[in-house]
Amino acid sequence: MNRAPEPTDVGPNAIDADAAGGVESPPLSTGFGSFGGFEPARESSADMQPERSAFDVCHVGVVLRAVLFLHGVLALGAAFVARDVAGWGLLLTEASGVGMPALLCWLLTACLAQRRLARLPIGPQWVAATLAGAAWGLAAWWLWGELQWAASPRAEGLRTLAVAATGAAMAAAFFHWLRQRARLERPAATTARLAELQSRIRPHFLFNTLNTAIALVRIDPSRAEAVLEDLAELFRVALGDTGAQAAASLRDEVELARRYLAIEQIRFGERLQVRWEIDPQADGARLPPLLLQPLVENAVKHGIEPSPRGGTMRVRTRVRRGQVEILVANSVPQQASVPGHGMALRNVRERLRLMHDVAADFRAGRDGDVYRVQIVVPL
Questions:
Q1: Measuring CA to CA, which residue among 283, 177, 188, 297 is closest to residue 234?
Q2: How far apart are the first and last CA of the chain?
Q3: Cα 325 from Cα 375, distance rounded (Å)
Q4: Vertex 58, ends 57 and 60: CA angle to 5°?
Q5: Coil, strand or helix: which one is 316?
Q6: Strand 286-287, strand 323-331: pairing
Q7: What is the number of other CB atoms lying within 10 angstroms of the CB of residue 186?
Q8: Which tens digit of pLDDT belongs to each residue from 303-312?
Q9: Interatomic CA distance for residues 254 and 290, integer angstroms
Q10: To the nearest whole number, what is the mean pLDDT of the chain?
Q11: 73-126: per-residue pLDDT in tens?
Q12: Is 323:358 a contact under the CB 8 Å cutoff?
């Protein structure tokens, strides 16, 4: 299958129709319908986890927000003293030449020393954060002066004090924001939300699988046993403790998808054709548990099941530019399946956002006679 142009990004309101071949399944038919009293406990495991460290800045989303905040402050400050637009641009450039290296060095320091800093009481944490901001501010100012062939700022006592105070103030503002972020996004809240999203499974899939196993018991007991083993593994992951299972490897997710498709292969026979293109170098990528299974389930339900002739499915993983790309593609039947509400794809998107923030990318859409779901996550 030749690779088609990249699919367009699909927003939360755009995936209700045209999912996996034209439409999505109803809310209780997406692979994540509520399943009675088998929902795993949430509060006990989540409440025992420590609060997220305020120095946990090793994320692309945090760095981007910090850079935008810094440039916003610098732009406003330059506007107060600039006489015209050209002067404002020059002042902003000079201020960025000092502020950006100081900010990036402060974030790098916090990232590398986050474990040690997290063990300190809150008072020393504030002291460490502000002193690091003052030190990196002075270092960036001195370097900028040297590059501009200016006099060393160490000879200008008042300006040196102003630079150190500004660096400390900015660092204090960043640290305060990081503390509030850690409180709002503590593991208990995230784990509870992940538990809500991951503790659902489609009831009629269970019944269909059990009926398949019952039909095989008399004619092929060994295959019936294999079906029940695959089903047990699916339920072990689906009903597992999300507190202890905060992330799964891509390798485990692929193995789980293979088990699911092995069950469906018994139902559809030659109507279901699957191509696996698995890159072993991508196996270590971390994903929310049960992320890949609902995507292949959607492909079967909307791409294979409605077609009397069946169809083909393609599952590909690969490493590209330091990131892992995951592709689930299926042929689109001529007759569309029953319309739905796009719950499965929204579920996958939200869990990716909770785990990887802006470092993950999710795209889904129809490309000719093929429906593609593409995910990009950090390696």
A1: 297
A2: 26
A3: 6
A4: 95
A5: strand
A6: unpaired
A7: 16
A8: 888 888 889 9
A9: 10
A10: 75
A11: 888 888 888 888 888 988 888 888 888 888 889 888 888 888 888 888 888 889
A12: no
Is the Cβ–Cβ distance between 34 and 347 less than 8 Å? no
- What angle, rounded to 10 degrees, do the helices at 85-112 and 60-81 form? 150
The H or E element spanning position 318 is strand 311-320
Gap between the Cα atoms of 197 and 363, Å rounded: 19
Q: What is the mean pLDDT of residues 257-285?
A: 89
Give residue 114's pLDDT.
83
CATH 3.40.50.300 for the 27-41+203-378 domain, yes or no: no
Cβ–Cβ contacts within 10 Å for residue 184, how many?
9
Burial class (CB in 10 A: 0-12, 13-18, 19+), 151: exposed
* pLDDT tens for each residue of 166-220: 888 888 888 888 887 776 655 545 555 555 555 454 555 667 667 777 877 777 7
Using the CB atoms, write b or e for 269-304: b if 16+ within 10 Å: eeebebeeeeeeebbebbbbbbbbbbbbbbbbbbbb
Q: What pLDDT is stored for residue 326 in this prediction?
A: 95
**346 φ/ψ angles, rounded to the nearest 5 degrees:** -65, -40
Question: Considering the entire predicted model, what is its pTM?
Answer: 0.56
Query: Which pairing describes strands 323-331 and 370-378: parallel, antiparallel, or unpaired?
Result: antiparallel
Q: How far apart are CA 109 and CA 137, in angstroms?
A: 13
Which pLDDT value is given to residue 91? 86
Token code pair at residue 217: 């018991």
pLDDT of residue 204: 56
Q: Token pair of 20, please?
A: 């996996």
CA distance 5 to 2: 10
Task: Report CA Rg, the chain.
Answer: 26
Q: Find the mean pLDDT for residues 327-352.
A: 78
Tokens 């406003």 identify what position? 76
Q: Which of 339, 327, 284 is nearest to 21 (CA)?
A: 339
- The residue among 246, 268, 264 whose CA lies nearest residue 354 is 246
Residue 85, amino acid: V
Sign of CA dihedral 132, 136, 142, 145: negative
User: Where is pLDDT greater, at 344 or 377?
Assistant: 377
Domain boundaries defined on the chain: 27-41+203-378, 60-185
Taking the C-alpha atoms of residue 164 and residue 271, their distance in angstroms, rounded to an integer, is 70
Q: What percent of the chain has pLDDT over 70?
A: 72
Residues in the chain: 379
